Amino acid sequence: MRFLLDDEQREFARSLDAMLTAADTPSVVRAWAAGDHGPGRDLWARLAAAGVFALAVPEAYEGVGPLPVELAVAFTELGRHAVPGPVVETVAAAVLLAEVGGPAAKEWLPRLASGAASATLRTDGHGPYALDADAVDAVFTVTGDELRLAPGPGALNVSSDPARRLWRPAPGGELLASGTRVAGAAARAAGWAAFVTAAQALGTGEALLRSTVGYVKQRTQFGVAIGSFQAVKHRLADTLIGLEFARPLLYGAALALAGDAPDAGAQVAAAKVAAGEAGYAAAGTALQLHGAVGYTQELDLALWLRKARPLRDAWGTPGACRARVLADGPAAPDRLSGGRGR
User: Looking at 144-249, which runs of residues are DSSP E strands?
Assistant: First the structure.
């Protein structure tokens, strides 16, 4: 299958890139990590005005979605610019509420679509933590077949990425819905979370590769740029191949979600494995080729390096995603390597 974005989708990507470049996201990330959410909320409002969160909200609730291809476009850009905050979890919460329906959907979905409210989500099977629960308007939790609005963010846990603040939500809270539909909706929401996380991981890897290519063109040894060394070229080429193999898997998963394909969950899992590991490999390449300067927190590179591993593991570790692909049929293993020979 050959897949190409149309002109409108490419323009959407360019407009987000321009907006986020002008927003100076490294300073926003540093402020967010320090507990200053003001710049991040301002950026959130601009993303909402651009229609990013409305892409996950059905038209019946004042959104324009769900539009998975456009979400892949948007979240690749968000990853490329290291946008902080529970952007993935807000999309997942929108999917969850739309599936559950009822008063909670009517109350929250229009607000999530417009950016008037933000949310985070914790579900069974994906750890006890909710991302950035102290910075949002709603902390949704799913335990068993109960959907609740948590009474508070709970306790803060140490994270490897200071800009990804993990909170253990306080127990209890308002019961919004219960029953088997909640468990099914939570599973669907987790799948969409894995999907947009894969897009973020792909964008993160692309940013790391771009930064590294620029650096090896400038850094010299023995009087020449280190980028001219064959070993360096091979390392960069391997990194690029990993990212480029992940891209069609991501858009293939988007089309599967759009068509509600029976194997959409497995396609999302394959995309998550490929994009997550390609982004993490790009971080390893960036760290090695930048040398000692790559370890310094003052360098903006560190903001992307710290995201690569959490994005690889969030909403489905590589092992869990591979198990999902392998359970989907005899042809599934090819998707683990993007169709490459084993």
Answer: 146-149, 155-157, 166-168, 174-178, 220-221, 224-225
